Amino acid sequence: MELEGNRTLVMDFILVGFTTDPFLRIIFFVLFLFSYIFTLTGNLCLMALIYLDSRLHTPMYFFLGSLSFLDIWYSSVYTPRILFDCVSKNNHMSLAGCAVQFFFSAGLAYTECFLLAFMAYDRYVAICNPLLYVTAMPKKLCIQLVVGAYAAGFANAIVHTGNTFQLHFCGNNVINHFFCDGPPLLKISCNDTRVHALIEATVLGSNLLVITAIIVGSYIGIGAAIVNIRSAAGRRKAFFTCSAHLMSVSLFYGSIFIMYLTPNVSHTPNWDKANALFYTVVNPLANPFIYSLRNKDVKAAFKKVWGRFTVPK
Q: Are 60 and 118 a contacting pair, CB within 8 Å?
């Protein structure tokens, strides 16, 4: 700790995590270890299938592979630290370490928001203009959209990190959460945080407004296109191509909306931890299975690649 005037400034934090009970911490360690292994395995396998099977070299699967790559890094911001806290008696995190985790957490979360929005636009083009799909979504544009998602994500992260860590933290250094996040940090700051909270809400709200407009606008167009499809089989196929994306968007956006855009008076620390699990741990774990279990192209690619490596030559 450092002294500034009559105040003792906090230079490190204590993460409370999920529990202090030693037995429950072991259970949590095992659960999170397996979830992390499955997250890495599922996303790496999906990326490998997309790379190895030429039939998956389309804009849709390019975005899906990009999402899997992002989810590997996104889950790695949280889960290794959770595992460490489950087995360590020292749950301290330095101020610099907290700022780094906060920066990458915000940057990758915003990136995923924008990437999911661009994936909705991709589905809109595929369903509304199927004959011009490849022409309308060239590889160069797909790369630009993914790069744009990262640029927008980390630009927002710079704003949030600068806004939060110009605050002073005095006396209380206990963060009742499993990672360094904005709301619990604002609660333990010794400054007046009303302006900082307003800036945080404004930046988050304006970004989600733009992202939501892209997604809702895309699905309004998709809905209109599906209504105009004459055959029932065609409508089912069009809806099926969007169902996985809708599930992923609902899981990710729903938990973020509840966490950051609902009144703080309705929040409790345990509720915030449970809700945060959905967009930090569950979503990266679920995405590769959401997009592959009912996807005929991915199943066919898996059988082809599996046969290539298992059938004796």
A: no
Residue 174, SS3? Answer: strand
Q: What is the pLDDT of residue 313?
A: 54
Q: Confirm if 286 and 74 have CB atoms less than 8 A apart.
A: no
Long-range contacts of 299-304 (CB under 8 A, 24+ apart): 300/53, 300/55, 301/49, 301/50, 301/52, 301/53, 301/55, 301/56, 302/49, 304/53
- Which residues of the chain are under the pLDDT cut of 50? 1, 3
- How many Cβ atoms are within 10 Å of 80's Cβ, its own excluded? 12
Q: How many residues does the chain have?
A: 313
Q: What is the pLDDT of residues 262-300, one digit of tens each?
A: 766 566 778 888 889 999 999 999 999 888 877 777 877
3 state DSSP class of 92: strand
d(CA 195, CA 174): 22
What is the torsion angle, in degrees rounded to the nearest 10, for the CA atoms of residue 95, residue 99, residue 105 and residue 109?
150
C-alpha 128/C-alpha 215 separation (Å) is 15
Q: 26, 109 in Cβ contact below 8 A? A: no
In terms of pTM, does the model score above 0.85?
A: yes
In tens, the pLDDT along 61-89 reads 999 999 999 999 999 999 999 999 998 87
| Identity of residue 258 | I
DSSP annotation of 94: E
Give the chain's end-to-end CA distance (angstroms, integer). Answer: 66
